[in-house]
Amino acid sequence: MGVRPRKGRSVMTDGVWAAPGRVNLIGEHTDYNDGFVMPFALPHTTVATVALRDDGVLRLHSADVPGDPVELRLADLDPGRRSGDWTDYSAGVVWALADAGHSVPGADIHYESTVPAGAGLSSSAALEVVTALALSDLCELGLDRPALARLCQRAENSYVGAPTGIMDQTASACCEAGHALHLDTRDLTRRQVPFDLAAHGLELLVVDTRVKHSHSEGEYGKRRAGCEAGAAALGVSALRDVPYAALDEALGRVEDPEVRRLVRHVVTENARVERVIGHAVAGDFRSIGPVLTEGHASLRDDFAVSCDELDLVVEASVAAGALGARMTGGGFGGSAIVLTEASRSSDVGKAVLDAFADRSLLAPRLFTAVPAEGARRLS
Ligand code: ADP
Ligand code: MG
């Protein structure tokens, strides 16, 4: 039996759901090239308290955004009429559901989140996935997790207008506690890879630089277009199809030097995902460190999406004895990850904080990331 919607404004709760943010261990800017990624879910979640209503109204409120609840008429939802504020993420999910033939009678949704927003930890996917899961459960839509992720990506691409890949939504919807998710973004094949760093005396620090450079969205679009130009120049449907062994030959066929660097990042980054998977499966977690640092150099020098603050986290942490570090997420600010011996973790963290203080930069926020479970119903 589905939950029967109430008349008009609802005062009762039909349920509570949670969806996590994520860090991406390796595989950056590969998800819109049909490539490989390896995120894991954070313990930080966006929680949605949801009650259905039957009057075609979507009433949205977030404890994390000042202001009164916002009421939208379901019949008015249209990408051409988006508001440009946070409610587009939720409205986009409901619009994408309707567009796929799944009708929602109306809902009151209240959000509360511990995922830092705009920090490269995917608060947007957490918001979308928790909305889609709650509505799918309440309306008995029977959507499986990969389908929910695709629907949320559609909401973000077509309604919010952000041309993101499929990684963030899949991570939030499909990750499992204690595991990283090896995802093939072409066919969405998933493999849960045991990832218990603590058992090996290791820690993964997330360093949120708390900066977001404003040109990031335009630059993201340019990188996407450049990757498509690279694939076209090489006669493949996506850069995923360029094997690492054929990289030098492929680079010789790309004339534009900027596009050539983008191609080199994507092809080597896909190979790095494979190397990290190999180390993780072999239980050789320490060997992952240098691969992360190599990935950072590629994002900094070839893909050109790093920034001074992210470079500083990597330099300071590696100089202080970390096994490896790299920016994570889209870049131009946001967060970096640092793999370190657990016994050195506080020294490494202090070295990063000192490096920022020495340059009079805003103090970053640090926390230890342990792979947590994906989206779920709480009550
Ligand atoms: P990221 O996904 O890396 O956190 P994005 O720019 O993709 O960064 O998404 C951040 C945006 O998502 C915020 O600016 C806001 O519009 C929306 N958002 C995320 N979490 C919440 C929340 N709990 N309440 C309201 N809006 C949120
Ligand atoms: Mg996002």
TrEMBL record:
Residues the entry annotates as binding substrate: 28-31, 220
Location of the active site: 168
Keyword terms, alphabetized: ATP-binding, Carbohydrate metabolism, Cytoplasm, Galactose metabolism, Kinase, Magnesium, Metal-binding, Nucleotide-binding, Transferase
The protein's enzyme class: transferase
Stretches assigned to the GHMP kinase N-terminal domain: 91-174
InterPro entries listed in its UniProt record: Galactokinase, Galactokinase_bac, Galactokinase_CS, GalKase_N, GHMP_kinase_C_dom, GHMP_kinase_C_sf, GHMP_kinase_N_dom, GHMP_knse_ATP-bd_CS
Pathway(s) it belongs to: Carbohydrate metabolism; galactose metabolism
EC number(s) reported in the record: 2.7.1.6
Reaction catalysis annotation: alpha-D-galactose + ATP = alpha-D-galactose 1-phosphate + ADP + H(+)
Annotated residues for binding of ATP: 62, 118-124
One Pfam family cited in the UniProt record for this chain: GHMP_kinases_C
Residues in GHMP kinase C-terminal domain copies: 282-352
Binding site for Mg(2+): 124, 156
Molecular function per GO: galactokinase activity
Primary localization: cytoplasm
Coiled-coil regions, chain positions: none
Subcellular location per the Swiss-Prot or TrEMBL entry: Cytoplasm
Site (Transition state stabilizer): 22
Positions of the Galactokinase N-terminal domain: 15-51
Recorded family membership: Belongs to the GHMP kinase family. GalK subfamily.
Function: Catalyzes the transfer of the gamma-phosphate of ATP to D-galactose to form alpha-D-galactose-1-phosphate (Gal-1-P).
Xref: PANTHER family: GALACTOKINASE-RELATED (PTHR10457:SF7), MEVALONATE KINASE/GALACTOKINASE (PTHR10457)
Protein name, per record: Galactokinase
Organism: Streptomyces zhihengii
Lineage: Bacteria, Bacillati, Actinomycetota, Actinomycetes, Kitasatosporales
Protein's gene: galK
